[in-house]
UniProtKB/TrEMBL annotation:
Name this protein carries in UniProt: Histone-lysine N-methyltransferase SETMAR
Lineage: Eukaryota, Metazoa, Ecdysozoa, Arthropoda, Hexapoda
Matches recorded under InterPro entries: RNaseH_sf, Transposase-MT_Hybrid
Gene3D superfamilies, per the entry: Ribonuclease H-like superfamily/Ribonuclease H
GO MF term list: nucleic acid binding
Species whose genome carries this gene: Eumeta variegata
Length: 136
């Protein structure tokens, strides 16, 4: 007969801390998890997100790629892409989604603000505006 160990929040935190060291969730995060789980059935699966599609790891793709890798371990991404028929999407040369026309300003602003300390956001805004005005 199997037994189930039910940890309280502190015991769970100590166990996670022992297993993951500095990468464990915070105690407040763990408390929030306990509250959610006590409410009843919870969906623990990830929701779909914007960005790369998850179709890359389908069984069809795995079975198509596995023989190629087992035959030649030096198979390239390009060869895999062609064999699976993966299309590379072209981007506009100056797409605002990919780059900002102000990227060149960042190093100049950082150089002007180097070594200055600010206690709150109200101090940063005028200093940033002043450095923007001084930057050609």
């Amino acid at each position: 007969m199997a037994t189930t160990n039910f940890y309280n929040q502190q015991e769970s935190y100590n166990t996670l801390r022992l297993a993951f060291h500095d990468e464990d969730p915070s105690l407040s995060t763990l408390y929030n998890w306990f509250i959610l789980l006590k409410r009843g059935p919870t969906n623990l699966t990830d929701d779909l997100r914007r960005g790369h599609l998850s179709m890359v790891t389908t069984e069809d793709n795995i079975s198509a790629v596995r023989p190629m890798i087992e035959t030649d371990k030096r198979v390239t991404y390009q060869q895999l892409r062609i064999s699976l028929g993966v299309e590379i999407l072209a981007h506009q040369p100056y797409s605002p989604d990919l780059t900002s026309c102000h990227f060149y300003l960042f190093p100049k602003i950082k150089e002007q603000l180097l070594g200055k300390w600010f206690t709150d956001a109200e101090e940063i805004v005028p200093a940033h505006e002043k450095s923007m005005e001084a930057t050609p």
